[in-house]
Structures are given as structure tokens and as C-alpha cells.
Amino acid sequence: MNHPALLSFACGFASLSLEILWVRLYSFAKLSTPAAFGFVLMAYLLGIALGARAGARACRRADSEAQLWRYSIAALWLSALLTLVLPALFAAMGHIELKSAALDLLVMAAASSVLAFVFPIAHHLGTQKLVGKQGQRFALVYTSNVMGAALGPLVTGYVLLHTLSLQQSFLVICAVQCAAAVFFALALKIRPRYGVVAGVGTLLASGIALAGTLFDPHALVQSVNQTGTRAGTVIENRHGIITIFPTPGHDDAVFGGNVYDGRTNLSPEINSNGLERPLLMAALQPRPRRVLMVGLSIGTWLALVNEFPGVEQVDVVEINPGYLQAAQAYPTQARAVQDPRVQVVVDDARRWLRQHPAKQYDLIIMNTTWHWRANSSLLLSTEFLQLMKLHMASGAVLSFNTTGSRDAFFTATKVFSHAYRYGNFVYVADFDFRGRKDTSETRRLFQELRLAGQPLFAPHSAAIERFVTEPFIDITTVQRVAERPLEQITDHNMVTEFKYGKPLY
């Protein structure tokens, strides 16, 4: 059996698995900003460079193969211990206000450096005392590492993170490293002199971590959520992390990727989640038959759209199936998802729309996430709006959330002949729809809307008047007060994410 190749495989698998987990943890803690991935990659490469340098020095100074194996086994134990300790340390630093780029860099570099220490040792062990076959054996060890590095993200990203919590996934990778250390110690009959302390410490820490995970599998996510309070519901899968914070009065707050996604409130009198924005669509396009919603969230807006007069079909494209699970805890939202007119598709919106080019809609509503989040340009860019335009029937209206981005509004004006802002939403069409808002017909429509068999608005509601009198804003007004020239968002420049995005620190 080629033990150096197996050692190389185990290190590659564990190292890339841990990188996936650290990207998930750090990105969540940093509110899904696009720079988070690059920061983790930088930290990981720094750790790999330092660890590999130390491993090369160990190869030069070791007096026997047995000593190098002892180093490797001790490193596996130590890496397993750090797999448990460092995520908890990272979370704790936020509570004691020790967060800084330098400290975060050191924590993640430490996570990668120990396994990187083993990598040159595995190559050294794999080519020693084999005159004429060093190249072949070197290639085998290197290929084994690449195979482990390729398999790690697949298993961790597609299996572990979809079936286990982030905290449990760290524990599994810790167990993998412990198992590898035990395997090599037994297979090679190496005395665990150098690894006994790390091994005992790791086993004790693993027992404590296992007990904590059984008690609260989402403790790591709870400790780094931005609200500083405990979420009532946490849903983790490979698509992301959803947290829901209970609030009195059926007004729970929903967060996706640690940033605000919406609320469960369905009362326009309370209106904590801007219900006038989807409700306005009922006035701008009377009796829409076919509706497309990009993004489900908890299903609050879907419950309203289902009540629009004339709706016969609603297609909802949501990339994270966790929201479907979350909606089941709220009766009105659950009924909206289960409405026979509603088809919820779990897919990427671009891919689904391209696969269904004949689909045409009278209303399209996109409750877009924050413009500075990673991948938000895919929903705000010129290219995506042009794709949406192809799916708009004659007289259709589309709306999306700019989340305060003037560039998103400006981009819409470059694609559609009529684009106006209402609150922080932009409404676009091929005709001027503004005259449909402040009318007696709209007031009557709002007064007649019902939800779960009850009137949506209270009798003589002042909210209706506020909703219909709030003005549309045109791009000229926005440009006049902008502090810089507005820029058009494309798939290539991604200006809202990087050029004007949210900083990490």
C-alpha cells in the first residue's frame, strides 16, 4: 500500500473541505459580501505557504522516515484540534470586540498551515529510496493530493453542508483527520510519542464539541449572526443559511446569509415590510393573468400576489429550498405556496428563464436582495434585465428592489423606455403607467383586496391614501442629487458589488 499517497490524499481532502467551511463561516459573518471569498483564499494561501515551508525544513532535518511519519501524525492530530478550536475562537472574537482583518487572517492561515506542513513530507516519503522511479512516485503522490482536493469540496459542499449544520460539518472533518492519524499510526506501527498530547487534547475537545453540537447544532451560526440575538429558527443547506428572529405580533424578521430578507407581517396597517411595493403592482397592471416572482423568501409577498384580481398562474423561482421549509411554519404563507395556481421552482432564475423562452408574464416581481451582496449583479445587470424583458407580455410591468442603489435605477432606464422609482423599488414597462397609481379605481381595488377571507385593509384605512399618494421619482431627479455620475451595471463590471460595494471592515 502506498501510504505517502494516502497521506497526500487525506491532506488534500481535509484541507479543501476546511476551506469550503471557512468560506461559509466567514462569508456569513461578513454579511455575504463578495470580498469575503477572496479574503479567505488569501488567508488560506498564506497558511499553505508558511506550512509548506516548515514541512520542507522538517524533511531536510529529519534523521529517519519514522520521524517524518511521527511529524505527520502529530500534524493531523493538531489540525483536527484546530478544526474544533479555531471556528469557536473566530466567533468568540466578535463577542469581545477583537475582530480585525489581521486577526481573522491569522486564524484562517493557522487552519490551513498545519495540513500544508504535511504535504511536502508526503512527497518526500513517496520518492525516497526509489532510484529511477522518483518522477513516477512523485506524480502519484501529487495526483492523490489533487484527487483529495477535488473530492473534498464535492463531499463537503454538496453533501455535508446540505445534510448537517456548519458546526456539525467542522466536527465531521475533525473526525476524518483523527481517523487518518489513527490509521497511519496503526498501519505503520509508529509510536505516537510526538502526537500523544495533541491526540488526547483533540479527543477531549471532540467529546466536548460533540456534546455541544447535540445540544445546539447551530450554535456557531447563532454566535456570528449580525443581530446579536438568538434566532428562533435556523435552516442550513448547501445553498445558504436562513435565520428567523421572532417578534411579537406575527412580524418575524427573516434573514438570508445574515442579511435582512423580509418579514412575515401581512398587515398594511403595521406595514413593517413595505407592503405598498407589491400591492402597487395590482394597480399598475389590472387583472394580470400570469405572474412571475423571482425570489420567494418567506412567502409573504406571494400571499398578497395570489389575491390580485385576475391571477391565474404564478411561477416562483427560488434558488434556496430552505425558504419553502421556513414558510411551512406560517399558515398564511404556507397556504400561498400550496395554492394550486402557484408553481415554485428551485433553480437559478437565469437558467430557468433561458430554458423556458416561451414563457410570457403580465407581472414580474423581484424582491431583490441587497445590491452589495455577492452575486447581486446577476439580478441587477443590464444583461439580466434584457432577459427579463423578453419574458414580458405586451403591457406587462416589472418591479425590483434597488435596495438604495442609484446605479440599479440608472441601469433600468437604459433597458426600458419607462422606469420610475417608488420607495426603493423600480417599476419598468414599455408604457407610462404612472397615471394608474393615484386614482379612485386604485383606492377601490385596495379596499376590496382580501386575505384569508378577510379584508386586507381596515375600513377607511389611512394606509391606502399614503400608498397611492407616494410619488414616483424619475431618474433625472436622482441624477441631480447624486454625488457622482451614475453607472450602468453589467455582468462584467459588477459595480454594485466591488466598485461601490460594502467593505469587509
Describe the model.
The protein folds into 2 domains: 3-224, Growth Hormone, Chain: A (Up-down Bundle); 268-481, Vaccinia Virus protein VP39 (Rossmann fold, 3-Layer(aba) Sandwich), CATH 3.40.50. The model has no long low-confidence stretch (mean pLDDT 92). The chain has 505 residues and is α/β, with parallel strands linked by helices. Helix 1 runs antiparallel to helix 2 and helix 1 (3-29) runs antiparallel to helix 6. Strands 7-6-5-8-9-11-10 form a 7-stranded mixed beta sheet, with helices on both faces. A 4-stranded antiparallel beta sheet has the order 1-2-3-4. It has a two-stranded antiparallel ribbon with strand order 12-13. The protein has helices at residues 3-29, 35-61, 65-95, 101-127, 134-163, 166-187, 196-215, 219-224, 276-284, 300-305, 322-327, 331-338, 349-355, 377-380, 382-390, 406-415, 440-448, 462-469, 475-481, and strands at 233-237, 240-245, 253-256, 259-263, 290-294, 313-318, 342-346, 361-366, 392-401, 418-422, 425-429, 450-451, 454-455.
Compile the SSE list and pairings.
Layout (H helix, E strand, L loop, with lengths): L2 H27 L5 H27 L3 H31 L5 H27 L6 H30 L2 H22 L8 H20 L3 H6 L8 E5 L2 E6 L7 E4 L2 E5 L12 H9 L5 E5 L5 H6 L7 E6 L3 H6 L3 H8 L3 E5 L2 H7 L5 E6 L10 H4 L1 H9 L1 E10 L4 H10 L2 E5 L2 E5 L10 H9 L1 E2 L2 E2 L6 H8 L5 H7 L24
Parallel strand pairs: 5-6, 5-8, 6-7, 8-9
Antiparallel strand pairs: 1-2, 2-3, 3-4, 9-11, 10-11, 12-13
